[in-house]
Design goal:
The chain contains 10 helices and 15 strands. By secondary structure, it is α/β, with parallel strands linked by helices. The chain has an 11-stranded mixed sheet with strand order 1-8-2-3-7-4-6-5-9-10-11, sandwiched between helices. The protein has a 4-stranded parallel sheet with strand order 12-15-13-14.
């Protein structure tokens, strides 16, 4: 059965499908999420099935408000301060589960913590409000594939695997949310994303970067090979090799014939919004043009540039 494409006027229908345990993709300010009722274990399992996602990689739960999110976790003063500053918005907080938290253990991969966020997209908020509960929603693509920033990307990857996609237009931020673990003594940046680490540190003080070695994955997006196109990706390219397409940042490298421009004016925010669109487009041209790989020009690791390089590093990792 083909996946239905719903419009903004059909939000109530999308909410009904979620209540029935079905999967509905929807746009946020970051990327499109693959939504399911977070309190319905079978519905959550359908996410893993549709994505082919490793069961140890937990999901982010989306809420209509900070008050709703904090009913299911144990917030601390830092969480309340960050929520007041950055929610709604592209920041996910990992916090201890509340004792009576109804969210499926599968959504958190059995961990005692839960990853929660309040998205800053009007249609996503309306869907969450209409549904009336938490929605577990990783990116709406098959596991390891490029994250979707348009409804067309969702349908390319998941048509027939999910019930519907709610068309929310293109995603303005274009990379996933920043994930910050506040469940321990030291605030730990698990995944750079739409809120710059510098802005978080300015609000609450220094952050530890990365989970301790051997720790369980407390956040999505932490597998080494992730966000990966079929073509091999080569980072920080200074010259092009035969057959390579170019993911450009600023003036393109000499000799480039197949180019996707992330930002001609070298704006990392513009580049972030275009990143997955560029990977999708170049990957789609591979067979037609006989491409052998994607070369990426250097992108500064400042602000959201850190998130861009994180995604590209995972896209370039050896496939496992």
């Amino acid at each position: 059965m083909r996946t239905r494409r719903l419009t903004a006027s059909q939000i109530d229908e999308a909410a009904l499908l979620l209540r029935e345990g079905q999967l509905v993709a929807f746009g946020t300010e970051t990327v499109y999420g693959l939504g399911a009722d977070a309190c319905n274990g079978e519905a959550v399992a359908r996410i893993y099935q549709a994505k082919g996602r490793p069961s140890f990689n937990p999901l982010i739960c989306h809420y209509a408000s900070a008050m709703a999110a904090f009913c299911h976790v144990r917030p601390n003063a830092l969480a309340e301060r960050l929520a007041a500053k950055f929610w709604p918005g592209p920041l996910t907080l990992v916090l201890p589960r509340a004792p009576a938290c109804p969210v499926s253990k599968l959504a958190a991969a059995g961990l005692p913590t839960l990853a929660v966020r309040v998205p800053g997209h009007a249609l996503a908020h309306d869907l969450l409000a209409a549904f009336g509960g938490p929605v577990a929603a990783p990116s709406a693509n098959r596991s390891g594939h490029i994250s979707p920033t348009r409804p067309e990307h969702v349908l390319e990857d998941l048509d027939g695997r999910i019930s519907a996609v709610l068309d929310c237009g293109p995603c303005p931020v274009g990379v996933e949310s920043t994930v910050l673990d506040l469940s321990g003594e030291t605030p730990t940046l698990l995944r750079p994303g739409g809120v710059a680490a510098e802005d978080i540190a300015a609000e609450i003080g220094p952050l530890r970067h990365g989970a301790p070695p051997g720790a369980a994955l407390a956040s999505p997006g932490l597998l080494a090979s992730h966000y990966a196109p079929a073509l091999p990706v080569r980072l920080n390219a200074e010259v092009l090799q035969p057959g390579e397409a170019l993911l450009a940042f600023g003036a393109p490298l000499p000799g480039a014939r197949t180019i996707f421009q992330l930002s001609a004016r070298r704006d990392v925010i513009e580049a972030a919004a275009n990143l997955f669109e560029g990977l999708h487009e170049l990957d789609a041209k591979a067979a037609v043009l006989g491409l052998t790989g994607i070369a990426v020009q250097p992108i500064p690791e400042l602000g959201i540039g850190l998130a861009i390089n994180d995604r590209l590093t995972r896209a370039s990792a050896p496939k496992t």
